[in-house]
Specification:
Low-confidence stretches: 1-5, 11-27, 175-192, 270-276
Mean pLDDT: 76
Structural class: alpha+beta
Largest sheet: 7 strands, mixed
Number of helices: 5
Helix content: 25-40%
Shape: rod-shaped
Distance between the termini: 158 Å
Length: 276
């Protein structure tokens, strides 16, 4: 199977390859069912592909594997409906607008699928507008792009704009998701104010009496604990000085006693002989 994914852009802006040149022109072409779209109204249109690829030359018609609708400026795509057997992908431009809707077959595809989507058309009642569509199969494809101003081998899908439907007004272009309705409009810019900055709540800023007492007792305990080592060091220093002074006094007294003894022993005329 030839890859047809993402091939629609080349098909809309470039000439067909050799394989496409061998394919016979289609006898019918895709169309919008009803051929009309109301202006400035929410409308559901059905893009009917009408046939597969090939088959006009007597061969077997091939199923459609890819369809791409190039969204013009006058058409706004609101929603793409689910189509059984196909996966839809919305492609957006750099500015966020939808510029294409691509349907890709999940399996073998169908010959002529019907593709539904909700749109809002702009313009004047009676205007003729055209939709460029790419249809891709396994071995062939079509570029439905021809208009009166720019003719091509395969004509584009023509629609006529009709009067607005008062019972189906268009939805706003930018809807706020339901999940954001209860929240702030812009969570990023939300500023949380500090309750301390609000006037009139000075009583709330003052600590409770119990809390003040507890903090004061805690500070006193901390001060006592910090002062205890200094007082203990001062007490130990006083004991050491007193002990040193006592030892010095004992040494002095001992020295005086020893000196007196030595002096008494050496005095002349001491003893019996001196008395006689």
């Amino acid at each position: 199977m030839l890859p047809v994914r993402r091939t629609w852009r080349r098909g809309l802006v470039a000439a067909l390859g050799a394989t496409l040149l061998l394919a016979a022109p289609a006898s019918a072409h895709p169309f919008v069912r009803g051929g009309e779209v109301p202006v400035d109204s929410l409308a559901t249109i059905t893009l009917a592909m009408a046939h597969g690829c090939g088959g006009d030359g007597g061969g077997e018609e091939e199923p459609t594997l890819e369809v791409a609708l190039e969204v013009p400026e006058w058409l706004r795509v609101v929603e793409v409906a689910d189509t059984e057997g196909y996966t839809a992908e919305v492609e957006t431009a750099a500015d966020g607008t939808v510029d294409a809707v691509v349907w890709t077959a999940d399996g073998e595809g169908e010959l002529a699928p019907d593709l539904d989507l909700d749109v809002v058309a702009s313009g004047e009642e009676g205007d003729e507008r055209y939709l460029a569509v790419f249809q891709g199969c396994e071995n062939a494809s079509y570029r439905w792009v021809g208009t009166p101003d720019e003719p091509a081998e395969d004509p584009a899908i023509g629609v006529t704009l009709t009067a607005a439907d008062p019972d189906s007004p268009p939805p706003p272009e930018e809807e706020v998701p339901a999940a954001d309705e209860d929240g702030p409009e812009d969570p990023v810019d939300t500023v949380v104010e500090d309750p301390a900055d609000e006037p009139g709540d000075s009583a709330d800023d003052e600590p409770a009496p119990d809390q003040t007492t507890a903090e004061s007792e805690s500070d006193d305990t901390t001060t006592d604990e910090a002062a205890a080592p200094g007082e203990q060091a001062a007490d130990e220093g006083g004991v050491s000085v007193a002990l040193i002074v006592l030892l010095v006094l004992v040494a002095v007294v001992a020295a005086l006693v020893a000196a007196r003894r030595r002096g008494g022993a050496s005095t002349p005329g001491a003893g019996p002989e001196g008395d006689a």
